Amino acid sequence: MSLPAVKALTFDVFGTVVDWRTSIARELRAALEPAGHEFDWLQLADEWRGGYQPALEQVRSGARPWVTLDVLHHENLVELLAKHDIAELSESEIEELSHAWWRLDPWPDAVEGLSRLKQRFIIATLSNGNIALMVNLAKHGALPWDAILGAEISHSYKEQPITYLGSAEALGLRPDECAMVAAHNDDLVAAGALGFRTMYVNRPAEHGPGQTTDIRALHDFDIAATSLTDLARQLEC
Amino acid sequence: MSLPAVKALTFDVFGTVVDWRTSIARELRAALEPAGHEFDWLQLADEWRGGYQPALEQVRSGARPWVTLDVLHHENLVELLAKHDIAELSESEIEELSHAWWRLDPWPDAVEGLSRLKQRFIIATLSNGNIALMVNLAKHGALPWDAILGAEISHSYKEQPITYLGSAEALGLRPDECAMVAAHNDDLVAAGALGFRTMYVNRPAEHGPGQTTDIRALHDFDIAATSLTDLARQLEC
């Protein structure tokens, strides 16, 4: 597949590049099991993530001013702990646990795929994660980004148009010189409507074995790939 | 030298990491000599750079709204060409030549020094260069930044305090968890006054053999180094 105008690939990160679910389950377990708590840790991870879209919607709707995803993750963790009557964590322990989102492991194909794609394209995050979160995630997983863009650049959250357009503008590129790479149909539809090229990466186990959404490309995207190394292969990187 | 609180090194780029002067002279010559122009190319590079601080000052003073350094470089090039009665370049050729600032070569020690420092620290740009400029510069010279910060993050220009503080905040760090690395005394004094640690790198030939300013550290910085590899050595990287 040749898309000669494309100069930059902009990436969704949670689910597309990193496996947040098993990593968060591991982090929750490491923090809570020593104190005697027993949970279905994957389900607890899903509960924490469950607060994500409602929190973003508060910002997208204008009901509250822009705050970083680190702040929202922290708030949602405090709620999660309260709901399950977990009261013994200190403030600094809660802060440390809220940074579990800085320690998500990449999918096995991610580092090789990104490294190959980086040889031919600018590769940048276009995630709802803030800069500190994305930088620490990159350090944890050796993700070789050229730039950290996305939500914090424009103080907005996907799928608000300005989140995509602000990242393209920061790169000095037109939308059609950028390709959005994501495992989520909605993300690609939103980017595509603004003129971005669209590249779907299938992650049918992001939400576990029973996943029912985003198990395949539902639209005619420019590319549909099974992994980031498969994407690199299709782009001849 | 051990500075245990420091988690991120933030870098001045023009002069500290890349050799803008000989690179710009080369680019000007490549663009203008084929049409029969003859110049002292290094002096012409100095003239172009001479418009830099006055243009920034227009923004810093509030006389004009924030615009990117790419825009200011372009405007200053148009003035430079007019001053020397160079009229035959097309708009797209002027645009291409204005991007000479995307093609500056790193000092010989820069890539090795940054790569070693990156093993232990977050390394980020804290330059007046905008994101597109810094990303393209990194691609040109294989500079392994973890993040592109600086002027465009806060829509301000050094040495305005918000340029430094906005970059530290984007990393989720206090100023004293960041160290400014620069070849310019003023840059380090400004960062130090805000609580940053300060690391001087000597570049006595940035402005050529007759350089009279910034030929040595004039203040008691945390570190004074002769190169980025020397800085890595002093930080035990």
UniProtKB/TrEMBL annotation, chains A, B:
InterPro entries membership: 2-HAD (IPR006328), HAD-like_sf (IPR036412), HAD-SF_hydro_IA (IPR006439), HAD_sf (IPR023214), S-2-haloacid_dehalogenase (IPR051540)
Pfam family, one: Hydrolase
Database matches in Gene3D superfamilies: 1.10.150.750, HAD superfamily/HAD-like
Coiled-coil intervals, chain numbering: none
Lineage top rank: taxon: Bacteria
GO MF entries: hydrolase activity, acting on acid halide bonds, in C-halide compounds
Keyword Hydrolase among UniProt keywords: yes
Keyword annotations of the record: Hydrolase
Chain ranges passing through the membrane: none
Protein's UniProt name: 2-haloacid dehalogenase
Lineage per the UniProt record: Bacteria, Bacillati, Actinomycetota, Actinomycetes, Micrococcales
